[in-house]
Amino acid sequence: NNIRVIELLPAIDRNKPIIINIRESSSESPIQYEALSYTWDDQKPTRDITCNEARLQVTENVFQALRQLRISREPRKRILWIDSICINQNDQEEKTSQVSMMGSIYASAERVNIWLSHSTEAMRGMFEYIRLSTSPKLCFDYVSNGMPTHLQEFC
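Below the sequence we write its predicted structure tokens.
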């Protein structure tokens, strides 16, 4: 029932190297964390980050999401659960066990961040359409690079 989480170190400059540390969280003493939902597409790990002082390769989408998540108005460490990092992708038994827990992992997260990709004109138009619609909608803390981030709740 344990999961791994990462501690994402903050950065003021988005071009600085990404540094994370992995640690375990037990169900007996759970910690608050955010989860990341993102598109895997057919991406292969090609981007380097530093994990526990060693090199770790991640996909482009995970790399860009981490770059964005570590920049905030108040520099602070963020505790995250990201499946491709927190689950050993080379251990089929672990993957099977952890994937079966993903519903509760996301449900237990303090916040779920969604990374679609870099902002595009179509995405900006879609979020503007949602903003202007009269239907119940999601609220966001702030907008980054023309894209809403940090979901609060339904309006």
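Strands lie at 3-8, 19-25, 34-38, 47-51, 54-58, 78-81, 111-115, 138-144, 147-154.
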